[in-house]
Amino acid sequence: MKSGEMFANLGSIIASVMFIWAMIKQYCPYELREWVEKYCSKVFTFFYPYLQITFNEFTGERFMRSEAYSAIETFLGYNSSMQAKRLKASDSIKTNQTLTLSMDDFEEVADEFQGVKLRWASGKHYSKNQTISFYPSSEERRYYKLTFHKRHRDLVIGSYLPHVLKEGMAIKVKNRQRKLYTNSGSYWSCVVFQHPATFETVAMEPKKKKEIVDDLITFSKSEEFYARIGRAWKRGYLLYGHPGTGKSTMIAAMANLLNYDIYDLELTAVKDNTELRKLLIETSSKSVIVIEDIDCSLDLTGQRKKKVKEEEKDATPKDPNHKQQKEENTSSHVTLSGLLNFIDGLWSACRGERLIVFTTNFKEKLDPALIRRGRMDKHIELSYCNFEAFKVLADNYLKLESHQLFTKISKLLGEVQMTPADVAEHLMPKTFPGDPETCLESLIRGLEIKKQEEEETVKHKDSSTEKEQEAREDSSIKKEAEQDKEPAESDQLGNK
């Protein structure tokens, strides 16, 4: 009976309080109600030992989606999907064959950090104003709310929240669908990047390959080091070598190793230095900015003015195409100075963790200021195919680690210069299913033909050199005869 009486008294007290509050809301002025609510909230907060931090999905005047909210969403979806009772399912970021799970609205999950227990809750604000909004839905605005004891304020704000944001961003980068960007004027457009190249499949000497991989991994883990020495977190790579030596494949392997996006910058489509700077600002962190065949993109060797003057002298005023060609040549006003500022100027530090990669077939044609250390930090020469690179290609294309023909191929590769692209073409199966021995024999024939062509070229050069030498000797003999003839004629004239 006592417990029943206690609940009855409690019910009557609650009913009385609700009645009094309803009377206050109805008959008291708005200012008085606001004052009562304000100070009642303060009294409640004084006795309530927990603090709350709210992270809204959209913030700022331009209603941009909060990066903090996105990182928390990824962190909670990855770490707390097993304990939440209500989940939301969506297509996977990488493929459409699996689903990703995240907390549903108004769901709570617990987390623990250094022995401290915390609670995350997802919620949604409903707006009654039927006004135009930039949000996906004008009636709802999602948020996450973190609740913790007030004695752990310093730990949560100083350590836990940075940990959540860092882990969430790392998970987001790892699971994202990577993109390949290209520029059209001052705007980037993109497609899904799905190049299969890896360093395991790159045809290169194992020692040199390991050196590049170690350098890339060291760079990706050196954020604190770059901040300590006062340098922007970026690194430049110059890939040079003959066509077909695998420069583009190397770039794809770099991006796949570090899980970076690729920005393929076409300099001829950039109007001026200001537009180039705008493109740089719009690139994301964890990306590879590539300028392929930089010696052919624009004249950045310091000889532009000289060449333009020579073209103007050679062209006739009556040539109707001269003006049009001149306009086409000057359509891009990107200068060497603008490109250098793009690489390592003040604006280059606006986005962190980036690789800047130049490729060229002729390293000697580039301006020394463009490829010096500090701009292009590592110069990588991609040379002709040697036997070590061939073994990688044989394993990739034919699934062969050894064969009786390898000895002959090794000898020929030491005598003949053939690019990895040409070797790979010979190893391509010509029938289905492919016959590995047929492919190896095709490569041997190709190497022998190449060797014969090189020998004929050397013979032709030697014969040309001999003919030039004989011609020079004949001309010198004629000059000596003429010189001997001139004194004899002068003596005859003197006698007369």
UniProtKB/TrEMBL annotation:
Keyword presence, Transferase: no
GO-annotated molecular function: ATP binding; ATP hydrolysis activity
GO biological process entries: response to stress
Cofactors demanded by this protein: Mg(2+)
CDD domains xref list: RecA-like_BCS1
Region (Disordered) location: 306-332, 451-496
Catalysed reactions listed for this entry: ATP + H2O = ADP + phosphate + H(+)
The AAA+ ATPase domain, residue ranges: 233-386
Record-annotated membrane-spanning stretches: 7-24
Family membership noted in the UniProt record: Belongs to the AAA ATPase family. BCS1 subfamily.
Full protein name: AAA+ ATPase domain-containing protein
Native organism: Erythroxylum novogranatense
Taxonomy of the source species: Eukaryota, Viridiplantae, Streptophyta, Embryophyta, Tracheophyta
